[in-house]
Design a protein that fits this description.
disordered C terminus; Alpha-Beta Plaits; 8 strands; alpha+beta; 5-stranded antiparallel sheet; 3 domains; Helix Hairpins; elongated; 3-stranded antiparallel sheet; SH3 type barrels
């Protein structure tokens, strides 16, 4: 009993308690200072790296991805340094982190899949920031390519975050990969319509559009003939940025001209069954 009293008395010695409090408070303050000041330095280093990569002409998508990756790696080293200042043995800590990392790897396999897919997207670069793409069932302009997801802005100004694995594992359509695109229109005219006249009318609309490129030459040709309708195909090349507006203007201009010359697009006719008077009784 006397030994226990002496042990408790040694533990509760005010001088020892003061020394312990001073030691740990100093370590905690040092660790916090290292972490807070280190975060500021990391942000400055990441910003400098981003500026340097842009100066040498690296793609903006690649620049953002590498900057985020650099910041993440440096943050891990900063946390280890803060733990060292706190007095935690980093060797044991790394062993614990390794074991925890293995467990987390199994739990966060989807996140790791997104990370690896993001690295492949940056390496192969099927698109870049500012491109209009269709991927994973979403159409929009690429706003950023992150470590785990791609941010797309839809035409109606919605922001959609799509996991990298869904984009890399699926079909990607990049509408801005090439500087030009072809507009394909199928214009129906009546079966009894004057085909040469219709081609001339459509050709005049095409020739009057200054945004249509001369090479490859525009095409206006009959594509199909049905029982009540003749299909005239229109194929023209334009700059990718002008695709939507030129297509809309062509459709409006062709419709107006066909109406003007009596070559209107025929209405679809459907035969409706009429019950006989006997059947109605």
């Amino acid at each position: 009993m006397a030994q226990l009293q002496e042990l408790f008395a040694s533990w509760l010695d005010p001088q020892k308690l003061g020394d312990i409090a001073l030691t740990w408070s100093g370590r905690v303050l040092a660790a916090l200072a290292i972490f807070i000041i280190g975060r500021w330095f990391l942000s400055a280093i990441a910003s400098s790296a981003t500026s340097g990569m842009r100066r040498v002409g690296l793609d903006d998508t690649l620049t953002r991805f590498l900057s985020n990756l650099l910041y993440l790696v440096l943050l891990v080293f900063l946390v280890l340094t803060a733990f060292t200042a706190l007095g935690v043995p980093t060797t044991n800590f790394l062993a614990i982190v390794g074991a925890a990392g293995l467990a987390l790897g199994l739990v966060l396999k989807d996140s790791l899949s997104n990370f690896s897919s993001g690295a492949m997207l940056v390496y192969f670069r099927p698109f870049k920031v500012g491109d209009l793409i269709d991927a994973a069932g979403v159409s929009g302009v690429v706003d950023s390519v992150g470590i785990f997801s791609v941010v797309l802005k839809t035409p109606d100004n919605r922001v959609v975050n799509v996991p990298n694995s869904l984009i890399y594992g699926g079909t990607i359509t990049n509408y801005n990969a090439e500087s030009t695109r072809r507009i394909d229109l199928l214009i129906p005219i009546g079966y009894d319509a004057d085909i040469p006249q219709a081609r001339a009318v459509i050709g005049a609309i095409v020739a009057a559009e200054a945004r249509i490129q001369k090479s490859p030459a525009p095409e206006v040709a009959v594509q199909d003939v049905f029982t009540t309708t003749v299909i005239v195909a229109v194929r023209v090349w334009v700059d990718s940025a002008d695709y939507g507006t030129v297509r809309s203007d062509l459709l409006e201009g062709i419709k107006r001209s066909l109406d003007k010359y009596g070559l209107s697009i025929p209405l679809e006719q459907r035969a409706l069954p009429i019950a006989s008077a006997t059947a109605l009784k």
